[in-house]
Amino acid sequence: MRSEVVTKKIRIAAWAMLIAQAGIILTGGIVRLTGSGLGCSDWPKCTPDSLVATSEMGIHGAIEFGNRLLAVALAILGVCIALMLWKGRKQRPDLFWLNIGLLAIVPVQAVVGGITVWTKLNPWVVAGHFLPSAVAVGVAAYFVRRTHDTGVRLDAKAPTPLPTLGWIILGLTAIIVVFGVLTTGAGPHSGSTISTRNNLDNIWITRLHAAPVWLLVVTTVSALVIARKKAQTAMVAPLTVLLVVEIAQAIIGYVQYFLGVPELLVALHMVGLSAAIAASVAVLDSAYPRSTDVHTDRSVSVVS
């Protein structure tokens, strides 16, 4: 499947996958922020007696069941994309298997989500439920980028030290995500009035969460300056986007902390998190350019 066969429908579907993966993070956050984590008291059924939420369960049941339905929609979307890519899977195995990987995350998320319900939203299990979603956003962002080239990596890459800085940026983003999850587990929004917290010191874990953020900002600014100096236009755009997202996230993070983590700002912070993950992946990927020439021979260098 060369670039011209990666149709507009496939590209739209790839974007839909990225948006849906980010949506899962947001709706999961809404479940927690509204205290709806146990809106469905059981899993895989919503209750022992009902597969779906009922009117008697109120708004909390509707919110939690809606989050579960989005996971089903993700699975359906993944299957549809797999069918769209099936004919060209030998020519573009990278696209096919990236989508299969995203599809495989769905049942993992479902099972871990069920365990969170069974454990009454244990914060450590909730953390384990979130992290695969963060990974899925990154993979989906990479998948989107792959639909805009032939999948053939060029021999040339961005000049030193840009590729290394790209890896550092992605690594710092991962660290920030982990500390962010731990900070959430120590905070007030547990998802239910009966749920416990992780007993980490809220002030210190928040500081540990903030420290790599500033390292990330410094690294991003450094990479952007170098990319401009070395005329690496392919990296300038994703680095600029990432820097804007980082600044916005830092502002939201500090404001929400000093205002007592109001629900709306927390939700915005989660949207920004998905944007930061996607932008970090784009930065690293842009350091390793791929051909957009549909006549490039895939046997020369193939990204799998």
From TrEMBL:
Major subcellular site: membrane
GO MF entries: metal ion binding; oxidoreductase activity
Membrane topology: Multi-pass membrane protein
Keywords assigned by UniProt, alphabetized: Cell membrane, Disulfide bond, Heme biosynthesis, Iron, Membrane, Metal-binding, Oxidoreductase, Transmembrane, Transmembrane helix
A GO biological process held by the record: heme A biosynthetic process
The UniProt record lists the keyword Metal-binding: yes
Cell division found in the keyword field: no
Residue spans crossing the bilayer: 12-33, 65-86, 95-118, 124-144, 165-184, 204-227, 239-259, 265-284
Entry's Gene Ontology cellular component terms: membrane
Top-rank taxon: Bacteria
Subcellular compartments: Membrane
Pathway it works in: Porphyrin-containing compound metabolism
Record-given protein name: Cytochrome c oxidase assembly protein subunit 15
Source species: Brevibacterium siliguriense
